[in-house]
Structures are given as C-alpha cells and as structure tokens.
C-alpha cells in the first residue's frame, strides 16, 4: 500500500514538470562561483622585520604606509552573474567588506530584498565580485602585525584589480570596474583613488 502511494505521488509530481518542460525558467537567485585569485605584494621598505618582536620601528614604518614583507596571497573571491543581461553586463562591481566581516556580508540573508547587495545588483544586470581581504574569510591568513595592515589591503586589492583589467579574473575583460567598499573597504577605495 505504501509503495503504491509513493509511486502515485512520484507520477503526479512528474506530470507537471513534463508539462512545463518547454518553458524557460527565470532563476530567482544569481549564479555564483567561489574561487581563489593569487596576488603578489612586494615590500617597499629597506628594513627587515622577519622574526622581529613588536617594537616602535614597525609602527613608524607602518605609519609611513610601507609594505613590510614580500609575499603571495590567495584572495578568496565570489563572482555572481546577473539574472538577465542588459547594458550593465559589461560592468564588474568589486566589493570589499568592512573590518571584522568577510565577503558574505554582501549576501545578507536577513531581509534580502533590502540588505542583499549582490541579489539587488545582479537583478539590475551587474556582475559582482565579492572578495575577502587577507586575514579574513577564506583568504590567506598571514602575520597579523607585519602583513595584515591597511597598506597590505590596498596593495593586494590593487593587484587584484590589475588582474581583473587584464582579463585574468572572471574569464573576460570588463569595460568598467566599479569599486564598492564598506568601512575598511571604503578606506581601501580611497587609498586606491589617490
């Protein structure tokens, strides 16, 4: 008895699917792809800080907006495609989160019609690329004093944008790259604009 009821229910569910097979469905959520982008940063000071304890020299060099260590980092990224292409489809929005957040802040599940930036921008026809700054989310976690500093954020983001402009991210060249920053992400944007 139970088996026959399951078979009848399965057949009933299949019929509507077959009736709608010829219609194209419009997704309600953007298609998103997670991947890493490797960027390289070169130090801009002659001083060596390897295996050094916390001291004032480090703070003075950081205040001078110097990069203290040369290194390569994996930047965790999420590219989301628009629901429908339009005149904005040649524009990529690069989104950098705030301090103590990660790339998921742009994908808010709380009242998404109001607070989900990715969903809204993809609905408007924009591609979006949310990234985790080094030391956050799924990106590389380097030394917190010597590498995870505002200047390191600026330089790794600059390298990422250069890769985007050269077509090495997202598999295409974008006509426009728009930077969207929140909190420390906005400080990065301001530094890049100078």
From TrEMBL:
Sorted UniProt keywords: Hydrolase, Signal
GO BP annotations, alphabetical order: antibiotic biosynthetic process; monocarboxylic acid biosynthetic process
A GO MF term: hydrolase activity
Entry keyword Coiled coil: no
Gene3D superfamilies: alpha/beta hydrolase
Keyword Hydrolase: yes
Protein name: Valacyclovir hydrolase
Organism whose genome encodes this protein: Penicillium cf. griseofulvum
């Amino acid at each position: 008895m139970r088996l026959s009821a399951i078979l009848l229910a399965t057949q009933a569910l299949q019929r509507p699917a077959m009736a709608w097979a010829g219609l194209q469905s419009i997704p309600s959520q953007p298609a998103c792809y997670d991947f890493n982008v490797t960027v390289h940063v070169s130090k801009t000071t002659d001083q060596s800080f390897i295996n050094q304890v916390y001291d004032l020299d480090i703070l003075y060099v950081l205040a001078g907006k110097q990069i203290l260590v040369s290194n390569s980092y994996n930047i965790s990224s999420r590219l989301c495609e628009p629901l429908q292409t339009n005149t904005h489809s040649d524009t990529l929005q690069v989104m950098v989160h705030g301090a103590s957040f990660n790339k998921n802040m742009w994908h808010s599940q709380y009242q998404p019609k109001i607070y989900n930036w990715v969903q809204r921008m993809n609905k408007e026809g924009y591609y979006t690329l949310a990234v985790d700054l080094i030391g956050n989310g799924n990106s590389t976690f380097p030394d917190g004093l010597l590498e995870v500093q505002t200047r390191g954020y600026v330089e790794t983001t600059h390298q990422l944008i250069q890769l985007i402009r050269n077509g090495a991210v997202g598999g295409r060249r974008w006509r426009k790259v728009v930077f969207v920053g929140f909190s420390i992400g906005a400080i990065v944007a301001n530094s890049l604009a100078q």
